[in-house]
Amino acid sequence: MTAATAAVRVELLKARRSRLPWVTVAAFTVAGAFGGLVMFILQDLRRARSLGLLGTKASLTGGTADWPAYFALLGQTVAVGGTLLFGLVVVWLFGREFSQDTVKDLLALPTARTTIVGAKFAVATVWSLLLACYLFVLGLLVGAVIGLPRWSAGAALHGLAGLLVTTVLAVLLVTPFALAASAGRGYLAGVAAMIAAVFSAQVVALLGYGRYFPWSVPALYTELAGPDRDPPGALGFTLVALVGIAGVAATAAWWRYADHDR
């Protein structure tokens, strides 16, 4: 067994013994169910009002209840919620070593520090992709139950591809939170960086400069800000990739060269 494989197995064991995987699954379950509820309401507004799901004076316009719209809604959910949930996963993976005072034991092992960092990022990536796949399968079940129209294998594959691309974008953007959690020696700094990034993304996208701000790119890609907004384009995707690479490299460098005196 190589050192990298052993490090990944250790991180998986930590995750398995934690409640966080179940928390993230529960959060995505709520997201998928809420998306299904929105589609159910859009199918028949009069029925929704009679069931008490929509206020008498409330109205929903501009939405359609079909499979392509539902897949788009799931992608938009990942664009925003994914940054928070995937960010939470990364912050937990790195911050727990300091909060639980296990970092010195970890660094004393005959395993390269960069290998440990790589294992944590690998687990975070697989974790996030599995959550996205779970959301897609849940969406298939919910959509079938409520009887959404316009089903096709092509629409399903397109929806899955969009969901996975959005997930990859979100995973790349949460890598700097690992550095924040590590340098801040705990959860607080990582969570603060995550909240600041999500808030800034909304503001910058609202001002119309989202394609220049990496954390706004997933929302623009899924047209969460509206189809009239400029798409992220090659520049936006390049910035996201650079953020991801820089986050991993900076975190690995910090773990390797920082003075771990406490």
Automatic annotation (TrEMBL):
Record bears the keyword Transmembrane helix: yes
Keywords: Membrane, Transmembrane, Transmembrane helix
TM region positions: 20-42, 69-94, 121-148, 160-180, 187-213, 233-255
Superkingdom assignment: Bacteria
Name of the protein: ABC transporter permease
Lineage of producing organism: Bacteria, Bacillati, Actinomycetota, Actinomycetes, Pseudonocardiales
Organism: Amycolatopsis mongoliensis
UniProt keyword annotation of Transmembrane helix present: yes
